[in-house]
Predict the structure.
Amino acid sequence: MSEKLTGRKLLDKLKELENNPSVERNKEGEIMQHVKVSACGYIGIRPDGKERLFYTDFSDAEWEAKSVAKRADDGIFWWSNEEDSFKDKLPSKWKEIIFLDELKYKLKEEVVDPEILNLFSKSDDRNLRYTVALNKNITKEIHDKLKKDDSSYVRSAIIRRCLPSEYWGIDETDLSKKIKEGLFSNDLLEALCEDKSYVIQQAISLSPQTSKNTLMELLENKNKNISSIVSERLLPQEWKDLDTEERINKIREDIPDKIVLSLLQKSANWKIRYIISHLIKEENLPVDFDNNEAFAFRCLEAFDSECDLILGDESTLILSRSGTSSDENYTISLQRVEEDDDGDFDYENINDFSNTLEDLNSAIEEYLEEGGSLTTIEATLQDK
């Protein structure tokens, strides 16, 4: 696995990409984020063998590299973004520290006065608040305050204090490996479930130490990848032993009980989810999966999961959705895309549809009437 670049190496790699005209870019000419993340080594492998990119870890490393470089090049001290009175409240030995890395080391490794820790816990820099959260000697007041911090990065440091101290500040990927290896008891994993990191929650869902009760809590996870992993683990063995086609045939022959039905509803396979949706609505089961409704079902699930998903040809005709991923009701828009003389894209709204299966089916029909192709939509859905 390639090295995760940090500091000057990371900045040099980004500069190298910027000077490469063949690198994939968006319509504004900016390098695509997935290209930067991959090139800088922030890559992992999922249990199914597919590649996973660690966007958050990369963003943290990029921010830190640029922050340190700016202070080194411009002579700007770590407190430059703090309120004017912040530095004045510090004892002289803390005022003498220039760079963030040195400051973080002192806050984490040394015995620090609780008043100093309390002061840095109010810093505008989340990296400093995170480092305070890793100090073994923080007071209950600081602990409780950082547990409600605006940054999930800081909150995660507090949550991970449930683990032995040698694991508090380790890399998220390394921690997930320890969890999957079964190093931690279910009591610790249950407490760790408060950490909303996908990597951590996925690891908990795969850990051999995770109890049935903890898995049941994870089953309701908003991330469908997590809930599908958990549902598979909770299925009775007789269902686990069946492949997709065998499961579909078994469903047709004998309607599963409510518990199995609820687990199959969260299956990673869209065909199983589709046939279960008919059972739940007490409708006749579909004869096959090569029909308009089944295609619309896949599209609707994709829109439900990704608020920034675009289906279609992004340079000519698209279906896109409004709102955020947490919205239960949202609008799906059919839009024509045209590039102007300056290379910018203009979007003409053709029609809007609600997020129901019937309406989305109509949206797809109109998309085809306007000259769109199902092939371009299928290309987006193939991994869904």
Summary: The chain has 22 helices and six strands. The mean pLDDT is 87.
